[in-house]
User: Fold Succinate--CoA ligase [ADP-forming] subunit beta from Flavobacterium lacus.
Amino acid sequence: MKYNLVAPIAAESLEQQKLIFSCGHKATNGSSWGGLEKTVFANKLAAESGNSFLKIKNKIVSEIGLNLLFLWHFLTDKRYTTMNIHEYQGKEILASYGVRIQRGIVANNPVEAVAAAKQLTAETGTGWHVIKAQVHAGGRGKGGGVKLAKNLQQVEEIAEQIIGMQLITPQTSAEGKKVHKVLIAEDVYYPGESETSEFYMSVLLNRSTGRNMIMYSTEGGMDIEEVAEHTPHLIFTEEIDPAVGLQGFQARRIAFNLGLSGNAFKEMVKFVDSLYNAYIGCDASMFEINPVLKTSDNKIMAVDAKVNIDDNALYRQAKIADMRDIREENPIEVEAKEVGLNYVDLDGTVGCMVNGAGLAMATMDLIKYAGFEPANFLDVGGTADAKRVETAFRIILKDPAVEAILINIFGGIVRCDRVAQGVVDAYKNMGDAIKVPIIVRLQGTNAEIAKELIDNSGMPILSAVQFQEAADQVKAALTK
Assistant:
């Protein structure tokens, strides 16, 4: 999913701001976040325009002092990336750790869907089935990606409708995501000795303190984003000391705060313990369950599962690594990752090529101040030679929305003249492939030599020295 990363927060109170910022996570490929962590943060950031992202970040630190600066840390630390998996895969992991889950079978076509429904009926006795689109995005129900079937004919009809559709949700781009498979799940909301209840629960990493946190609420099964905005007092957190792990009293406190008693209380304590073990055991950066269901017979069950796995741990999580569905990922980001470039696709028209994540964030601010939107976040790292620059050019230009490219390099480890030569050589090699204006700002080692190289290259490349000069050139290039 694409987000505007440089817009101000429109919260009515400091407490709402605290909650919003405490829930932030990766904005990068639209599916890495959970519903609460992603949508609240993204919607708030995209609500208006004007403030810089750096100012927002500083405001978090100085005024709010909360710890979960997930978006900031993700974008400024390329070592921290995640792999997303489907709901059915997340449930498989949960089940392997003893978490009770809503039973389901994956189907790739309507025929398989009917067969799966028959099998579930035989195994669980369920007469109704829930058909769920399997895509890396939340809010599927709002987009028509989750429907209830009351008989086998409806199972077939609904599966045929969903498989192959472009599912558009609040957490996808305007184009949506193509559905390749569905999960046929049992209906767990059948009547019994007591009413069912839905809760929200997620385990995630607090990057600033280095501790894991369990976030939970009595208001599950709905837009948890709205809960965060309108009734933040209904969301609780439990931070876990890594030296001792989740303690029994913490699991009991969670069950108590959720208003449970009797057998349901005991079941929730077990559920929390097993969920946390699953999170730790598979090296996840987030496990989000929404809803966690208290069934009519007082069992606690995961009805959904949204899971992000830390990329750095995949070397020891071979089975989980095999769960990767590359069709769900942004193809440009996949290509960039394969060649070692840290690239994030955004919604704007000005492509960015920068070395260093901090400078990249400042460059996006620069573009915003010029009255435009960044088309990407791209950190070429410390080896900005001709080959790498050319690769970065080709990746940026794969986005048809790009109307100009701003190259902003600080020459520290890599000399500015080498970068300048790389830009000139890449431009020569690509020929007519580059049809948009290019603005280059180089500062640091051999910056003067670099500027001369560009100015004397005979190429239609604009050079700048100061930030404001670069911003003015971007504006001039796009307003001709």
Notes: The CA atoms of residues 165 and 178 lie 6 Å apart. The domain at 103-186 is CATH 3.30.1490.20 (Dna Ligase; domain 1). The radius of gyration is 24 Å. The first strand starts at residue 82 and ends at 85.
